[in-house]
Amino acid sequence: MKIKFMLNDRSQTWHTEPGESLLDLLRRHHVVSVKKGCDGSTCGVCTVLMNQKPVLACTVLAVRCAGEHIHTVEGLADEVEKISEAFGIEGADQCGFCNPGIALALYALKAEHPEADAAEIKQYLEGHLCRCSGYQSQVKAALRYLGEAS
Amino acid sequence: MKVVNQYVPSVDGKGIMLGRPAYTDDLAAPDALIVKVLRSPHAFAKIVAIDTQAAEALEGVELVLTHKNVPRKAFTRAGQGYPEPSPHDKFVLDTYVRYVGDEVAAVAAIDEKTAQKALGLIVVQYEVLEPVLDFESAIDHASIIHPEEGIREMFPTGFEPKRNIAAAYDMHVGNVEASLASCDVVVRETFHTQAQAHAMMEPHTVNARMDYQDRLLMYSSTQTPFHVRRILSQALDVPISRIRVIKPRVGGGFGGKQALHGEMLVALTTLRTRKPAKMVFTRQEVFESSYSRHPMRIDIALGAMKDGTLKAIDCRILSDTGAYGEHALTVFMVAGSKVLPLYNKVDAVRFGGQVVYTNKTPAGAYRGYGAIQGNFALESAVDMLCERLEIDPIVFRRKNMIAEGESSPIFEIMGEGTEGTAMSMETCKLDTCVSRGLTLIDWHKKYPRQTLPDGRIKSVGMAIAMQGSGIPYIDMGAATIKLNDDGFYNLMVGATDIGQGSDTILTQIAAEVLMTTVDRVIVYSSDSDLTPFDAGAYASSTTYVSGNAVLAAAEKMKGMLLDEAARALGCDRELVRFDGATFTADSGENISLSKLSNRLYYNEDQQQLTATASYVGTKSPPPFMAGLIEIDLDPETGEIDIVDYVSVVDCGTAINPKLAIGQIEGGIVQGLGMAHFEAVKYTAQGRLISNDFLSYKIPTQRSVKNLQTEIVHSYEPSGPFGAKSVGEIGIDTPPAALANAVYNATGVRITSLPITAEKIMAGIAAKKGEQSL
User: Fold this and answer.
1) pLDDT for A116-129, tens place per residue?
2) Strands B582-584 and B590-592
3) Using 50, 70 and 90 to split pLDDT, how confident is the model at B217?
4) Cα(B727)–Cα(B223) distance, rounded to whole angstroms?
5) Is B656 part of the contact surface with chain A (CB cutoff 8 Å)?
6) CATH number of the structural domain B13-129+201-252+257-289
7) Chains A and B: how many Cβ contacts under 8 Å?
8) Residue ranges of domains in chain B
9) Whether the predicted pLDDT of A149 surpasses 60
10) What is the predicted ipTM?
11) How many Å lie between the alpha carbon of B203 and the closest alpha carbon of chain A?
12) Nearest chain B CA: its distance from A67 CA (Å)
């Protein structure tokens, strides 16, 4: 079947199969910022924005995206660059596999609650597993990004 | 220094965060065949019959591989120096399956659905055998896990497969028995550590295609691309010149990718079908069918005199390598060689034991590589000894621990599966690490415990640790620097960035020598066709070994540039000054690097300038650290809040302080996961239950409240700009530090990892029982 949806502010009409996840659909179309890290909704690396809210693309059926707005880091480059700068300053970059998902979460957090403190950031990012960083540098980077944004 | 030891953001952070194609699966051919593996449902079984007809007949299936149609040549998947200390005990596919999740057959199909369906059509008849699940009863068990012919050790490693022994080792200095007998106080304890999962975020991923020269081109998410190429060539009988292995961006490794996992089956698929093929491990496969940390039982005895002089250490270990013997001997030896020299003033030390096979997920390399296991036992036992001696554990450690200028006979005796290399500590700021750590955590105010108003107990605990910097005389790293027109450089390294930031720090080293900025040095790692050799990212080697290679290559390039500038300026080389951008003769005449480069490539004296250098260590200077933990423990529930973890580290000069701190903090939190809650659970039949992120919890944002991490001033003369390596040291201290803090809070000594609330409550209950008797 074909679905029509907005991906990064551009209309796309893509073929999908019943049961295909948004994650598989996006990766099949080479939207590779969206990663696959687990077998279902436990790691956070496939996070995308659906109508500006973070969702796990592995647990969203592609057909459910018909008519919806999906954003990935590819479509939010200006803001993601700011997040990346904050990560760079705090030394929060390591393997990077979780970074696009975290960037989208921080983008959403900024819209929802730009005054978030460290504890609130930790809570907001808890679903984003990272095995490299020990997390503290990510929180510092998030505070820096939110601080500069506000 | 202008670039080294300065703030430099990682060279690749932005592109990665922007989602540019970088990782192995991002680079797979869109039409790649999907390779899926049929995995054993039994812990130990012999394949009596296997019928693949229906699977092969299924439309869309291109290839089915079983033990009947693959080469049979034993190899080890371990990516290590060659010949490897690991036994060659693995076949591409075998008639035996040795753990739940072991490979039975593989299917290559046009899509995942078809591949899955085909797996279901393969009919296997097993003769189910009695598995060996308890590693403490593995030796001389009625079931022999590797009864097959054709397996072997590469040099004497104590390999006795008919007894389920993968490796064995013994060493001693002095007479331990006599020394212990003469001590005022002796403590003996047995410790157990678990099979921690690596849980790197990017699953094991590989893809292959035949290139236009009809060579096998592989993208592999590996820590060791050159070892992958060699092992594929040896096991599949393909000339090594016909294989190219590219390591793209790797999404974390921690030792788990210091091996071949999907590479063999994907390579065979592409070689047979001539079509692109790929495999991405499911998370369940990462847990069940890749690697874990070696679980160990550690029996340790420490003997000391009343005045607090440590006299003897006796350490006997039984290690569980699971179904295959990857890294079996070397991880075992590191549990001694990078742990016991911490207390180098003893009269006698003895270390030995065996590594046994079991029918469990194979153990392999994992950050710390034995040192975290050994450190848990030693640093727990030191606190136990101090209590018996009624001596402050800080005072005791200061009196007995290794110091700058000192050595240990262990360095010469124990190496990478062979003899080691004598060395004395040119840098060891352990004393400073301890002092600074005590200050940062406010130890004297909090030690040993305080009762909080809410009834919880605040306590502190600590441990010291050491690691290494590469494997001397074995593991080599090389670097090539190429000058381009307009005067920018390419830095090509075999060193393998797996997320730890080595591309960035190696660029910094080159830029510092060449007096330029990191944006003028374009780094590329690693590609077996294009980059020079490097053993890979393991054994805390990249900063020290590969870094020294980059340093030497950059010095060489600088010399070449001065030669060419002197020629262009028509003066003696000794009279040319270079500031990174301009060459100036003593006459005042000058030429820019850009102009000189363009002259070399377009105008006069044309030639390509390329400098290659190699480095192999002649020693392995250890980084050192003190790790101190503050916890709030609820005596009603046993629950622990990790309030603070202080790490003070001597890693020599930090080439990139922020990234070095990232290595330390990442190690600390991974170590805290192992120490506190990463629990491995099997069924009675040997199936791994903890095989996803719901049943196997790794630390999240909220697992640790605060980290304080400092690097002390230190300069290792043999390292690049004074650096030692820092990739592993962070993981070593948390288990013992937490165990000591729990003891300080409750008087309960937990001797098996992880240190869970349940174990603490059981300990508290047992103590109450004792008191009421």
Assistant:
1) 999 999 999 999 99
2) antiparallel
3) very high
4) 13
5) yes
6) 3.90.1170.50
7) 187
8) 13-129+201-252+257-289, 296-471+619-772, 476-616
9) no
10) 0.98
11) 6
12) 24
- Report yes or no: B191 and B752 within 8 Å, Cβ to Cβ: yes
Mean of pLDDT values over A72-97: 97
Contact between B661 and A137 using a beta-carbon 8 Å cutoff:
yes
Block residue for tokens 């095989």: B691
**What would the mean pLDDT of B572-593 be, rounded to a whole number?**
97
The minimum CA-CA distance between A54 and chain B, rounded to whole Å, is 16
Look up tokens 């969206």; give the residue: A34
Contact A136 B13 (CB under 8 A): no
Contact B372, B467 (CB under 8 A): no
- Residue A48 φ/ψ, nearest 5 degrees: -135, 170
Q: What residues have CB less than 8 Å from B475, skipping those under 6 apart?
A: B81, B535, B539, B541, B545, B616, B617
Closest partner CB to A94 (pick from B23, B284, B499): B499
Q: Do A95 and B706 touch (CB under 8 A)?
A: no
Share of chain B above pLDDT 90, in %: 99
Gap between the Cα atoms of B242 and B747, Å rounded: 62
- Position A150 pLDDT exceeds 60: no
Find the residue in B nearest to A136 (Cα). Answer: B707
Picking from A34, A80, A93 by the largest number of B CB atoms within 10 A of its own CB, the best residue to mutate is A93
A76-149 belongs to which homologous superfamily?
[2Fe-2S]-binding domain (1.10.150.120)
Domain A2-74: which topology? Ubiquitin-like (UB roll) (3.10.20)
Whole-number CA gyration radius for chain B: 27
B678 touches chain A (CB under 8 A): no
| Residues within 8 A of A (CB atoms), B 680-739 only | 692-694, 698-704, 706-707
To the nearest whole angstrom, how far is the Cα of B177 from the nearest Cα of chain A?
A: 43
Distance between CA atoms of A130 and B357, rounded to whole angstroms?
A: 32
**Tell me: the pLDDT tens digits for B452-508?**
999 999 999 999 999 999 999 999 999 999 999 999 999 999 999 999 999 999 999
Query: Does the beta-carbon distance from A80 to B706 stay under 8 Å?
Result: no
Q: Specify the CATH class of B296-471+619-772 in words.
A: alpha beta
